[in-house]
Amino acid sequence: MKESKKDIVRFALAAQLIVSLVLGFYNIFLGIGGVVIFVILIMYYTKNTTIDEIKIDKAIDEIYSDLDKINQERMYEMPIAMAIVDNEGIIYWYNQAFGKAFKKEKEGLFKKNIITELDFNLTAAIKADEFTFHYEERDYGVVTNAFSDKIHSFELLHFFDITEQSKQRQLYRKNSPLFCYIVIDNYDDIIEQIPSHKRSAILGKVDLKLNEWAKQLGSVIIEYESDRYLMIFERGKICALQKENFKILDEIREIENDEKVPITLSIGIGISESILGIIESQELSHSALDIALARGGDQAVVRQDEKMSFYGGKSEATEKRTKVKARVKAYGLKELIKESDHVLMMGHQNPDMDCLGSAVGLLGACKSLGKEGKIVIREINYSIKSLFDYLLENEAYQDAFITPKEAESYATKNTLLIILDTQTVNYLEMPSLVDQIPKIVVIDHHRRSGKAIKETLLTYTEAYASSTCELVTELLQYFDEKSQLNVIEANALMAGMCMDTKMFTLKTGVRTFEAASYLRRKGADTLISKILLQDDLNTYTAKSDAVKNAKIYFDNIAISTFENNTDYGKVIAAQAADELLNIKGIVASFIILKNEEGLAISARSMGEVNVQVILEKLGGGGHLAIAGAQFPGEKNIETGVELLLTAIKKYKKENGS
What is the pTM of this model? Predict the structure, then answer.
C-alpha cells in the first residue's frame, strides 16, 4: 500500500512539471511559477521520504536487535548441545546443553581446546557429511556450519544425542538374519563307495549333527538338496562360532564308517557393514561358500564385505574322480581361444617350472588351433633357466616370449589372457594387464584367497591337483585330435609336474599319474625332467647350509634361517624346506630367507600340519603341504622368526594340539 502511494505522488509531480512546461509556452511567468512550485514539492517530498526511511531502518534495527537477543537466549537454552570454535579448536562460546553434556570442571570449557579436552576430531567433523562422536557412553551426531567475522573463521557445532538410535541400530544388527550355506564336500564319494544300506545311516548322522548344531544356535536349517543345507541365524551368534573355530567341521569329520571315507563340510557366511537386502545378503554368503569350495573344502569362510576369515581346512582337498568338469572347462577354453585374435599366457612373479611348463603346454594348444600365443615373462630366473634354455634350442619357441612392456601392444578387446599358477592380481608378472584385457581365464591349483581375480570368463581351480601342469594336461586331453602335444611341450608339462610333486612323492593322486601317463604317451621323458631340475654345485652347497642351520621347535617342526641375495635364493629356500622333511620326526619345515627385497618364507608339510593355514595368518598362502609368505622391506630375520612362531602357536591352539 505504501509503495502504491509513493507511485501516485511521483506521477502527480511528473504531471505538475509537464503542465508547468506547457504553460511556459503561453506565459513565461506562469511557467516559471509552476517550476518553482515543482522544486519546492520535490524538496518537501525528499525530506519526508528520508525521514520515513530512517524511521523504518531504525524500527528494523530494533526488531533485529530484539531477535538477536531472543536467539541468543534461545540458543543458550536449547536442548541441543552447541558450541562455537575456531579453526584450532578453541571454544569461544557454548550453550547450556553443551556444558551439561561435556563440562568436566567447574570453570567450564570456555577458551579451552575441544580437540584435546574431549578428544574430538574437528577436521574429520568438518569434512564428513555424517560424523558420529562417542563420549562417555553417549553417541552424538555432529553437524557443522562455517561462518566468519571478516577476520577469523569459526565453526558452529551442533551435537545431536543419538544414543538411543545407536542402541536400536546395534540391536537391529545383532538380530539381523545371516545366511549360512553348507555343502557336504565328498557326497559323490559317499554315494559311490559306501553301500546303500550303510549310506543312509551315515548321511542320517550328518543330518542329525547339523540339526543339533542349528538347535544350539537357535537357528532354522533347511536341506534344499541332497548334499546342501541353508541355515539362517542371528548375526549376534557369529562371534561364538568364530571363537570355537566352527567345531562342527571336526564333529562331522569324526563320523566313523567302515569304508574310512572322510566326511567334510564347506561353509559360507556373508556379513556386511552396510544394511543389505535379502538378495544381496544371500549372494554374499553364497560367494563365501564358493571360496570355501575353491580352496578345497573342509573349512568355513566368513566373508565380511571384502575381508575373508578362514576356519578349519585341516584335511587335504579331496581328489575328484569324475572328469566331467575338466571336459566342460576344456570345451569352454577351446572356444575362447578360437574366438580370440591373440592369446597371452602369464603367471606369477618369479615364475617356476610349473608356471612356465603349463604356459608352454597351452602355447602348443594355441598353435594347433591356428592362433598366435605369447608367454609374458619379465625376466628369466634361476628356477626356469634350464627349461627356458631347453625351449630355445628349438626355433619354434624363440619368438614365444615377450616382456610385460611388449604385452601392452597385444592388449585389445579381443585378446585372451590366460593366468596360470596364481589367482592374485598383485602376484602377476604384469598386474595392470588384468585391467587392459577384458577376456580372462584363470587356471590354478592353489587354494583361493580373498584377493582372487573376480572378473573372469572361465576359472578352473582345483586345490586337490598336484600342479597347474596337471590341470592343463587334463584340459588338453579333451581338445580336438588335431590339438596334439609335441615332445617338447610334453616334457615341459612333465617337468612342472615333477617339480611340484618332488618326483611324484608329494601331493600325488590318481589323476596325477593319469596325466603323467598321457604325457608319457606323447613322448615325455622323466629323465629329461630330472635333468631340467638338477642344481649346480653352488646351489646344492647353499641348500645344505640352510638345512644345517635348522632348529627344532615343538618337538617336530624345523625352522631355519639364511641370507642369500642371488637370483636363486628362493629356489634354495624351497628345496631346503623339502630336504628338512627327510629328517626323521619332522612333520613340517619352514625356511626364512633374507634377501635384498626383505624376508620370504617357504614351508613344507607331510600333511599332519597345515602350513597353508599357518602362513595365511602372515599374509601368505598355498596348500596344506606347500605354502609361502613374504615380508617386503623387513630386514630383521629375528622378527620373521618371532612372527612365524606366533602364527604356529596360534594354529596349534586353534587345533588343540
Answer: 0.59
